[in-house]
Design goal:
Helix content of chain A: 40-55%
Shape of chain A: elongated
Radius of gyration of chain A: 25 Å
Order of helices and strands of chain A: HHHHEHEHEHEEHEHEHEHEHEHEE
Largest interface: A-B, 49 and 49 residues
Number of strands of chain A: 12
Strand order of the largest sheet of chain A: 2-1-3-4-5-11
Strand content of chain A: 15-25%
Oligomer: homodimer
CATH superfamily of the largest domain in chain A: Response regulator
DNA sequence: ATGAAAGCGCTAACAG
DNA sequence: CTGTTAGCGCTTTCAT
């Protein structure tokens, strides 16, 4: 009956040593005579002993677990970032628990609260802007947080990303220079910091540099959704734009297909540059020209930064609080 | 300094009650006088007390956490299943921790071991076949496991899925009946139970029913990969097939694009039916005709089943050990 | 190099 | 309705 009831005490008794010694062996503490170590190891194997991570966490106040919060698991962008996070976490012996907050973001506070209750040692946040409630939650804990592949309205949070403003500017400039006609921009939502301080700024700079006028009517919101972007196609056409920079790939694919299905030829009649460089850019036809991002690296660097933050030693690691990775462009078929 | 050092004891003292009472309030135990409850609640708020899930888990031997193991987080199929799992888990107050095993699957044992060490109350497994090592791990624990959206070589594991054999048969029959020419099949790997007992059987049945001959040369492996399927296009053409049933959407998209880029017109010169019905089927052009699966429901039902298994009361819940959900077909543009 | 003992923060009988 | 008392399984000083 009593399955898995073999504890550190069982092992200790069987090996005729103290719990402390077993603990040392399990944790690789060098202060154990080789013979003793071997004896304990044998018993562990024989009894099939598995340390209980919960008990360990309670006693040591460390769980070697980091929480990763993702807004939508079905979005390839986050999935690709998660890959980098995962690898580095494994490398540093951290377990990761991925949690999904769902599009709306109301669940975000709950999710983070849950992570904190579980005593994670750190958090990688890929969510939307930080609500007051969430900030309060974060403030009342000492767990380090790093933002990966985004920026939030919370400047105190260390961040790993590309230079969104610059990338946006370059993308839009390319488009304007290619067609000398109005260029639209499609973003997830306008009420986020990443829009107001990065996408919008970059867009306006590009317009200014190329002698175009800014018109708010040319900026569309599609809630990161394929379907919404798809439906936006007529409106975007209507506004006179002959090209668009789209911040996310789901939306870019939606717009592309919406235009194509409406009989518009991309790139001849309309050009698109996408922003995320996930595999979706290569799935659709014509393939999407895109800003290239080192997605895997962004995840990896975030996690690495987090490990430093968790080893308080590197408290100055917090200085690297806004890491910018290089971006580029991959010209595919949605531009000429 | 001492942030977050407010424990149940702190609250108890401040509220002038015992720890037990605080515990009762926190856990919604009705045996507390309303006045007392309110007093405790006030202190909790004032002190911003957060129960420590680790301590709770140790004391109660339940973590209200279930582990979800995914082979590749970047695969939309799993992401969509995860959504259903997540919702039901939330509904039943379970936390879920998603873990990625990475394509190869060698990490699987590690991942499951980690989950078990964390004392999860249950596991939803979406992985590949169960290795001996993994089975041993599972056997030595009492944690219930349910397989979602797949089948494994472990018959003892309860499973929620569609009828793969039948769906495959129908898909292949459609194809054969439409063209009366050889129909290929593209699968992830041939050495898995889901292939030998389901896809292959269904394929062979369809062939038999339509009077075609089985030829192993017409079955291709693409390791669930877009790129591999893309590269397979010439070989598939070469073997004389004029249509293919592809078990996964990534592969189907790869094949489709591979063919298209090779100048083959889909569906006029070659037809494709895909098997997963993720959003990718609608991303590509022509859109992929596909078996439809209630992805969300598969996830949801799996999780529901797991909750029953975790409440030992429903021990007979294990009887529903192979739940089949209805599938269908969505005819899009890759077939005529 | 090893052991004894005191918790980690909470739940769960058991009393009352 | 409320408090007391044991632990849960492990880590961690502090001795030895």
């Amino acid at each position: 009956m009593e399955k898995q009831s073999v504890t550190i005490y069982t092992v200790a008794r069987e090996a005729r040593v103290s719990m402390a010694t077993v603990s040392r062996v399990v944790n690789g503490n060098p202060n154990v005579k080789p013979a003793t170590r071997q004896k304990v190891l044998d018993v562990i194997k024989k009894l099939n002993y598995r340390p209980n991570a919960v008990a360990r966490g309670l006693a040591s106040k460390k769980t070697t677990t980091v929480g990763v919060v993702i807004p939508e698991i079905t979005n390839a962008y986050f999935a690709e970032l998660a890959q980098g996070i995962d690898d580095i976490a494994t490398m540093y012996k951290y377990n990761i628990v991925l949690t999904n907050t769902d599009v709306g973001g109301q669940k975000t506070v709950q999710v983070v609260r849950g992570l904190l209750a579980k005593q994670v040692d750190g958090i990688i946040y890929m969510g939307r802007d930080v609500s007051d409630e969430l900030r309060e939650e974060l403030d009342s804990s000492t767990v380090p947080v790093v933002v990966a592949g985004s920026v939030t309205n919370d400047d105190k949070l260390p961040t790993v990303r590309i230079d969104y403003r610059n990338a946006t500017r370059q993308a839009v400039e390319r488009l304007v220079n290619a067609i000398h006609e109005p260029v639209a921009m499609v973003v997830g939502a306008k009420n986020r910091k990443i829009y107001t301080d990065y996408y919008l700024k970059g867009y306006q700079e590009a317009l200014k540099n190329t002698g175009m006028n800014f018109d708010d009517q040319l900026v569309f919101e599609a809630n990161e959704s394929y379907d919404q972007a798809y439906k936006l196609a007529p409106a975007i056409l209507q506004c006179g734009a002959k090209a668009a920079f789209v911040t996310g790939d789901d939306m870019a694919a939606g717009l592309l297909n919406g235009l194509t299905d409406a009989g518009i030829k991309v790139p001849n009649e309309f050009q698109i540059i996408s922003g995320h460089d996930t595999k979706e850019t290569r799935l659709v036809r014509p393939m999407l020209t895109s800003i290239t991002q080192p997605l895997y690296d962004i995840g990896a660097v975030s996690m690495r930064l987090l490990t430093k933050l968790m080893d308080k030693k590197d408290q100055n690691a917090a200085d690297e609080s806004d890491v910018l990775l290089e971006h580029g462009f991959s010209v595919r078929q949605s531009t000429r």
